Protein backbone atom coordinates (compact mmCIF):
# COMPACT_ATOMS: atom_id res chain seq x y z
CA UNK A 1 0.00 0.00 0.00
CA UNK A 2 2.90 2.37 0.70
CA UNK A 3 5.54 2.82 -1.98
CA UNK A 4 9.23 2.99 -1.08
CA UNK A 5 10.19 4.61 -4.39
CA UNK A 6 11.92 8.02 -4.36
CA UNK A 7 9.64 11.05 -4.52
CA UNK A 8 8.90 12.47 -7.95
CA UNK A 9 6.59 14.96 -9.60
CA UNK A 10 4.56 14.35 -12.76
CA UNK A 11 4.59 16.31 -16.00
CA UNK A 12 0.95 15.27 -16.49
CA UNK A 13 -0.13 15.53 -12.89
CA UNK A 14 -3.76 14.68 -12.05
CA UNK A 15 -3.77 17.05 -9.07
CA UNK A 16 -6.76 19.37 -9.21
CA UNK A 17 -6.37 21.08 -5.83
CA UNK A 18 -3.92 21.06 -2.95
CA UNK A 19 -5.37 22.55 0.22
CA UNK A 20 -3.74 23.37 3.54
CA UNK A 21 -6.06 24.17 6.44
CA UNK A 22 -5.08 25.19 9.96
CA UNK A 23 -7.88 25.17 12.53
CA UNK A 24 -7.60 27.05 15.83
CA UNK A 25 -9.77 27.97 18.84
CA UNK A 26 -12.28 30.53 17.60
CA UNK A 27 -11.01 34.11 17.31
CA UNK A 28 -14.09 36.35 17.37
CA UNK A 29 -12.15 39.43 16.26
CA UNK A 30 -11.80 37.97 12.75
CA UNK A 31 -15.56 37.92 12.22
CA UNK A 32 -16.25 41.15 14.10
CA UNK A 33 -13.66 43.41 12.47
CA UNK A 34 -12.27 44.03 9.01
CA UNK A 35 -8.95 42.14 8.65
CA UNK A 36 -7.17 45.26 7.36
CA UNK A 37 -3.80 44.51 8.96
CA UNK A 38 -3.80 40.98 7.59
CA UNK A 39 -4.73 42.21 4.11
CA UNK A 40 -1.97 44.80 4.15
CA UNK A 41 0.56 42.05 4.86
CA UNK A 42 -0.60 39.77 2.01
CA UNK A 43 -2.23 42.00 -0.60
CA UNK A 44 0.73 42.27 -2.98
CA UNK A 45 0.66 38.48 -3.45
CA UNK A 46 -3.09 38.01 -2.92
CA UNK A 47 -4.62 41.32 -4.15
CA UNK A 48 -8.16 40.14 -4.93
CA UNK A 49 -10.54 40.26 -1.95
CA UNK A 50 -14.13 39.35 -1.28
CA UNK A 51 -16.26 38.51 1.72
CA UNK A 52 -18.93 35.83 1.98
CA UNK A 53 -21.09 34.27 4.65
CA UNK A 54 -21.18 30.49 4.56
CA UNK A 55 -23.96 28.53 6.34
CA UNK A 56 -22.75 26.15 9.07
CA UNK A 57 -24.57 22.84 9.57
CA UNK A 58 -26.44 22.92 12.88
CA UNK A 59 -25.56 26.58 13.55
CA UNK A 60 -27.84 29.60 13.27
CA UNK A 61 -25.09 32.06 12.37
CA UNK A 62 -23.15 31.65 9.12
CA UNK A 63 -19.38 31.78 9.19
CA UNK A 64 -17.79 34.96 7.82
CA UNK A 65 -15.16 34.09 5.21
CA UNK A 66 -12.54 36.58 4.04
CA UNK A 67 -11.07 35.45 0.72
CA UNK A 68 -7.80 36.73 -0.71
CA UNK A 69 -6.70 35.49 -4.14
CA UNK A 70 -3.85 35.92 -6.59
CA UNK A 71 -4.55 37.85 -9.78
CA UNK A 72 -4.72 34.65 -11.85
CA UNK A 73 -7.01 32.98 -9.28
CA UNK A 74 -4.76 29.92 -8.93
CA UNK A 75 -3.94 30.68 -5.29
CA UNK A 76 -6.56 31.44 -2.66
CA UNK A 77 -6.37 32.22 1.05
CA UNK A 78 -9.46 31.89 3.23
CA UNK A 79 -9.54 33.48 6.68
CA UNK A 80 -12.37 32.79 9.13
CA UNK A 81 -12.76 32.91 12.91
CA UNK A 82 -12.02 29.16 13.02
CA UNK A 83 -9.50 28.41 10.29
CA UNK A 84 -6.93 29.71 7.84
CA UNK A 85 -6.49 27.88 4.53
CA UNK A 86 -4.47 28.05 1.33
CA UNK A 87 -5.75 26.43 -1.88
CA UNK A 88 -3.70 25.92 -5.04
CA UNK A 89 -5.40 24.87 -8.29
CA UNK A 90 -2.18 24.52 -10.29
CA UNK A 91 0.28 22.70 -8.05
CA UNK A 92 3.88 22.24 -9.21
CA UNK A 93 5.86 21.19 -6.15
CA UNK A 94 5.91 21.31 -2.39
CA UNK A 95 8.63 23.96 -2.19
CA UNK A 96 6.51 26.45 -4.12
CA UNK A 97 3.41 25.64 -2.08
CA UNK A 98 5.25 25.99 1.25
CA UNK A 99 6.73 29.32 0.14
CA UNK A 100 3.29 30.67 -0.80
CA UNK A 101 1.94 29.57 2.58
CA UNK A 102 4.70 31.32 4.53
CA UNK A 103 3.30 34.81 3.89
CA UNK A 104 -0.34 34.38 5.03
CA UNK A 105 0.67 32.09 7.91
CA UNK A 106 3.22 34.57 9.25
CA UNK A 107 0.74 37.44 8.83
CA UNK A 108 -1.96 35.47 10.64
CA UNK A 109 0.30 34.60 13.57
CA UNK A 110 1.55 38.19 13.89
CA UNK A 111 -1.93 39.73 13.63
CA UNK A 112 -4.01 37.31 15.71
CA UNK A 113 -1.54 35.40 17.92
CA UNK A 114 -3.39 32.04 18.02
CA UNK A 115 -2.84 29.96 21.15
CA UNK A 116 -2.32 26.77 19.11
CA UNK A 117 -3.60 24.89 16.10
CA UNK A 118 -6.24 22.29 16.93
CA UNK A 119 -5.84 20.62 13.54
CA UNK A 120 -3.22 20.92 10.81
CA UNK A 121 -4.48 19.46 7.53
CA UNK A 122 -3.16 18.89 4.04
CA UNK A 123 -5.41 17.61 1.26
CA UNK A 124 -4.47 16.34 -2.20
CA UNK A 125 -7.39 16.03 -4.62
CA UNK A 126 -6.56 14.05 -7.77
CA UNK A 127 -8.81 13.57 -10.81
CA UNK A 128 -7.22 10.98 -13.09
CA UNK A 129 -8.35 11.45 -16.69
CA UNK A 130 -7.69 8.58 -19.06
CA UNK A 131 -8.43 10.89 -21.99
CA UNK A 132 -5.73 13.38 -20.97
CA UNK A 133 -3.17 10.61 -20.46
CA UNK A 134 -3.78 8.84 -23.76
CA UNK A 135 -5.33 5.85 -21.98
CA UNK A 136 -8.79 5.81 -23.55
CA UNK A 137 -10.26 2.33 -23.39
CA UNK A 138 -7.95 1.18 -20.58
CA UNK A 139 -9.84 -0.10 -17.54
CA UNK A 140 -9.24 1.37 -14.10
CA UNK A 141 -8.29 -2.20 -13.11
CA UNK A 142 -5.07 -1.70 -15.08
CA UNK A 143 -4.32 1.68 -13.54
CA UNK A 144 -4.95 1.30 -9.81
CA UNK A 145 -4.10 -1.29 -7.18
CA UNK A 146 -6.93 -3.67 -6.21
CA UNK A 147 -7.27 -2.33 -2.66
CA UNK A 148 -8.60 0.99 -4.05
CA UNK A 149 -10.94 -0.51 -6.64
CA UNK A 150 -13.47 -2.43 -4.57
CA UNK A 151 -15.64 -4.63 -6.77
CA UNK A 152 -14.02 -3.16 -9.90
CA UNK A 153 -10.94 -5.25 -9.14
CA UNK A 154 -12.86 -8.40 -10.08
CA UNK A 155 -12.28 -9.69 -13.61
CA UNK A 156 -15.94 -10.50 -14.21
CA UNK A 157 -17.26 -7.04 -13.23
CA UNK A 158 -18.08 -4.73 -16.13
CA UNK A 159 -16.81 -1.25 -15.31
CA UNK A 160 -19.29 0.44 -17.65
CA UNK A 161 -22.22 -1.31 -15.94
CA UNK A 162 -21.17 -0.27 -12.42
CA UNK A 163 -23.03 2.89 -11.49
CA UNK A 164 -21.23 3.52 -8.18
CA UNK A 165 -18.16 2.03 -6.52
CA UNK A 166 -15.84 3.75 -4.08
CA UNK A 167 -13.44 2.94 -1.27
CA UNK A 168 -13.19 5.07 1.90
CA UNK A 169 -10.36 4.45 4.32
CA UNK A 170 -9.30 6.04 7.61
CA UNK A 171 -5.93 5.07 9.06
CA UNK A 172 -3.18 6.12 11.43
CA UNK A 173 0.10 7.06 9.79
CA UNK A 174 3.66 7.53 11.07
CA UNK A 175 4.60 10.70 12.92
CA UNK A 176 1.25 11.11 14.65
CA UNK A 177 -0.56 11.70 11.37
CA UNK A 178 -3.98 10.48 10.30
CA UNK A 179 -5.26 9.89 6.82
CA UNK A 180 -8.63 9.75 5.12
CA UNK A 181 -8.62 8.40 1.58
CA UNK A 182 -11.52 8.38 -0.86
CA UNK A 183 -11.00 6.51 -4.11
CA UNK A 184 -13.30 5.63 -6.97
CA UNK A 185 -14.63 6.66 -10.39
CA UNK A 186 -17.04 9.53 -10.76
CA UNK A 187 -18.14 12.62 -12.68
CA UNK A 188 -16.33 15.82 -11.76
CA UNK A 189 -17.73 19.34 -11.71
CA UNK A 190 -15.17 22.15 -12.06
CA UNK A 191 -15.68 25.89 -12.52
CA UNK A 192 -19.43 25.44 -12.67
CA UNK A 193 -19.30 22.85 -15.45
CA UNK A 194 -19.54 19.07 -15.32
CA UNK A 195 -17.07 17.09 -17.39
CA UNK A 196 -18.79 14.16 -19.17
CA UNK A 197 -15.69 11.97 -18.80
CA UNK A 198 -15.70 9.54 -15.87
CA UNK A 199 -12.50 10.18 -13.94
CA UNK A 200 -10.92 8.30 -11.07
CA UNK A 201 -11.01 10.42 -7.92
CA UNK A 202 -8.17 9.88 -5.46
CA UNK A 203 -8.63 12.20 -2.50
CA UNK A 204 -6.10 12.23 0.34
CA UNK A 205 -6.98 14.20 3.49
CA UNK A 206 -3.98 14.07 5.83
CA UNK A 207 -4.02 15.68 9.26
CA UNK A 208 -2.40 16.12 12.64
CA UNK A 209 -4.51 17.18 15.61
CA UNK A 210 -4.30 17.68 19.35
CA UNK A 211 -3.29 21.32 19.99
CA UNK A 212 -0.21 21.62 17.81
CA UNK A 213 2.03 24.46 19.08
CA UNK A 214 2.15 27.38 16.66
CA UNK A 215 5.92 27.15 16.24
CA UNK A 216 5.60 23.51 15.13
CA UNK A 217 2.96 24.08 12.45
CA UNK A 218 5.43 24.25 9.55
CA UNK A 219 7.11 21.05 10.72
CA UNK A 220 3.73 19.35 11.03
CA UNK A 221 2.90 20.26 7.43
CA UNK A 222 6.22 18.90 6.17
CA UNK A 223 5.51 15.65 8.03
CA UNK A 224 2.08 15.41 6.40
CA UNK A 225 3.51 16.13 2.98
CA UNK A 226 6.03 13.33 3.41
CA UNK A 227 3.15 10.84 3.76
CA UNK A 228 1.38 11.85 0.54
CA UNK A 229 3.64 10.47 -2.20
CA UNK A 230 4.15 6.97 -0.71
CA UNK A 231 0.35 6.61 -0.52
CA UNK A 232 -0.32 7.90 -4.04
CA UNK A 233 2.52 5.98 -5.69
CA UNK A 234 1.45 2.85 -3.83
CA UNK A 235 -2.06 3.26 -5.22
CA UNK A 236 -1.22 3.56 -8.93
CA UNK A 237 0.07 0.91 -11.31
CA UNK A 238 3.37 1.21 -13.14
CA UNK A 239 1.39 1.81 -16.34
CA UNK A 240 -0.36 4.84 -14.89
CA UNK A 241 2.85 6.06 -13.27
CA UNK A 242 4.61 6.09 -16.64
CA UNK A 243 1.64 7.67 -18.43
CA UNK A 244 1.79 10.64 -16.02
CA UNK A 245 5.44 11.14 -17.10
CA UNK A 246 7.42 11.19 -13.83
CA UNK A 247 10.14 13.77 -13.32
CA UNK A 248 12.91 12.72 -10.93
CA UNK A 249 13.79 15.21 -8.21
Shape label: globular
What is the CA-CA span between the terminal residues?
22 Å
Residue ranges: pLDDT <50 for 5 or more in a row?
Answer: none
Sheet with the most strands: spatial strand order? 3-4-5-6-2-7-12-9-8
Helix-strand makeup class: alpha+beta
Instruction: Let me know the largest β-sheet.
Output: 9 strands, antiparallel
What would your notes on this structure say?
The chain has 249 residues and is of the alpha+beta class. It has 5 helices and 13 strands. A 9-stranded antiparallel β-sheet has the order 3-4-5-6-2-7-12-9-8, with helices on one face. A two-stranded antiparallel sheet has the order 1-13. A two-stranded antiparallel sheet has the order 10-11. A hairpin with a 2-residue loop joins strand 10 and strand 11 (193-194). Helix 2 (36-42) runs antiparallel to helix 3. The protein is globular and about 60 Å long. 22% of the residues are buried.
Amino acid sequence: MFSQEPHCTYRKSPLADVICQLRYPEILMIAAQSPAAFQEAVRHTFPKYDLSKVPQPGQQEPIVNHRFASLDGKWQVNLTSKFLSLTCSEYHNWEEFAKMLDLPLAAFIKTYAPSCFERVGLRYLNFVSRRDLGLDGVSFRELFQPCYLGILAEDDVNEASTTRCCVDVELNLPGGCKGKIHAGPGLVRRNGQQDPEIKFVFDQDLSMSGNVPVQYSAGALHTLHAQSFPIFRGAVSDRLHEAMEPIDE
